[in-house]
UniProtKB/TrEMBL annotation, chain A:
Subcellular location: Nucleus
Protein name per Swiss-Prot or TrEMBL: DNA replication complex GINS protein PSF2
CDD domains hit by this protein: GINS_A_psf2 (cd11712), GINS_B_Psf2 (cd21694)
Keyword ATP-binding recorded: no
PANTHER family: DNA REPLICATION COMPLEX GINS PROTEIN PSF2
Entries under InterPro entries matching the protein: GINS_A, GINS_bundle-like_dom_sf, GINS_Psf2, PSF2_N
Species the sequence originates in: Brachionus calyciflorus
Chief location category: nucleus
Residue ranges annotated for the DNA replication complex GINS protein PSF2 N-terminal domain, each copy included: 3-60
Automatic annotation (TrEMBL), chain B:
Main location as per UniProt: nucleus
Lineage: Eukaryota, Metazoa, Spiralia, Gnathifera, Rotifera
SUPFAM superfamilies reported for this sequence: GINS helical bundle-like (SSF158573), PriA/YqbF domain (SSF160059)
Pfam family, one: PSF3_N
Localization in the cell: Nucleus
The protein's name: DNA replication complex GINS protein PSF3
Keywords tagged on the record: DNA replication, Nucleus
Organism: Brachionus calyciflorus
GINS subunit domain ranges (all copies): 86-176
Length: 179, 205
């Protein structure tokens, strides 16, 4: 799975926009979207919001969790917890990345948000790596990890699967000790 | 029993190369008409006590519990002395030097040696793999492999494959973050031709 595919999945998340045009409801396979009235907030998928934003047809209303205060709180939770904490959105990294790219003007204090998201990401990846190392070093056969997002899993997918395969090959020759 | 040898499939080149590794053997019985194998003797028969380095696949095919035609001398990298070194600190050891297929060949060797020696080798391989994983993971997270040349050259083949997988992940993420997939790049043929055209243009001027 590519990161592009993960982003494609994330683009299905709904987001609120404030359109500046009038249009009737779209009927799409994934659900109905609209109707659009000027300055009436409407929920649309992220991909459509990006499309409208690039054509200056709307303003994107930032999701409530993309704010410096909220993200700082999340980061502190992440720092103090040994386990992975739940993220406000399962696609937090993808959504902020897309939004920061297409509509940085619509995000208050975009620079700080960008840094905070990156910090949270780095914290979580470091945690993921050290827990992977713990897992490989231990004798355990399985590990349960909650609250990881798809993109985070995707950053270790090839390495971890390859390593576990090789580890399995080597393990087959050592009888399991009863402990 | 055969399936042990082909963990990645019959035609896997890594397995084939690993089974090409040579093992030093001392012949226990005289073998008629095979003297040409030993280039140091002019006899037509292969004498008892002559020492030859035979590839693993050859020994594996003939050697078994009932027919011990040779006395196998374990490659020194798999002996107790090196087990101790690996136990002390596996991360600094140059596994490439100890045979580019250290793990794969080690696993193959288990089919030939006695159970208790084999168990020791298997345990050493496993603990070595486990302690070196962190280092490979850290190496693969760094993207510019030119700086890492020395470190990478100490990885054995299996580890290099893991390193490559890790690089794939790391580079994929960086590419995504830079949004490189959005950019349309000209085909290589076009860029190659462009350079050529430039040269002729400047000559014309």
């Amino acid at each position: 799975m590519d990161n592009e595919e993960v982003e494609f999945i994330a683009e299905n998340e709904l987001i609120t926009i404030i359109p500046n045009f009038q249009y009737k409801t779209f009927y799409l396979i994934g659900g109905d979207i609209g109707p659009f009235e000027p300055s009436v907030p409407t929920q649309v998928p992220l991909w459509l919001a990006v499309h409208f934003r690039q054509r200056q047809k709307c303003r994107i209303e930032c999701p409530s969790w993309i704010s410096v205060e909220k993200l700082e709180e999340i980061m502190n939770n992440e720092k103090s917890s040994e386990l992975f904490t739940q993220m406000p959105n399962a696609h937090y990294m993808e959504i902020t990345n897309v939004l920061l790219n297409c509509a940085p003007q619509d995000i208050p204090r975009a620079d700080e948000v960008k840094t905070l998201i990156k910090d949270i990401w780095d914290l979580r990846i470091a945690k993921l790596r050290s827990s992977m190392n713990e897992f490989i070093k231990s004798e355990s056969l399985h590990a349960k990890v909650n609250n990881l997002t798809l993109l985070e899993i995707n950053t270790v997918r090839n390495l971890l699967t390859k390593t576990l395969k090789e580890l399995h090959n080597l393990k087959q020759h050592v009888p399991v000790t009863d402990e | 029993m055969q399936s042990d040898c082909y963990k990645n499939g019959y035609f896997n080149i890594q397995d084939i190369m690993a089974s090409q590794e040579r093992i030093s053997c001392k012949f226990e019985i005289e073998i008629p008409n095979m003297g040409f194998l030993d280039s140091s003797s002019h006899d037509s028969n292969l004498k008892v006590g002559s020492k030859l380095d035979l590839p693993y696949w050859l020994i594996k095919a003939i050697y078994n519990e009932k027919f011990k035609f040779v006395n196998i001398d374990l490659p020194k990298w798999y002996k107790k002395f090196y087990h101790d070194i690996l136990e002390a600190d596996a991360c600094v050891v140059d596994l490439r030097k100890m045979g580019p297929y250290y793990y794969d060949f080690g696993v193959l060797l288990l089919n030939l040696v006695e159970t208790d020696i084999g168990l020791n080798i298997a345990k050493t391989l496993l603990s070595c793999f486990r302690s070196r994983f962190r280092r490979i993971m850290d190496l693969s997270a760094q993207t510019d492999h030119r700086d890492l040349y020395r470190a990478i050259s100490k990885l054995d083949y299996t580890e290099t494959e893991m390193y490559k997988a890790g690089q794939l992940d790391a580079n994929g993420f960086i590419r995504w973050q830079r949004r490189e997939f959005c950019k349309l790049l000209p085909s290589i043929i076009v860029t190659a031709n462009k350079n050529k055209r430039k040269r002729t243009d400047s000559n014309g001027d």
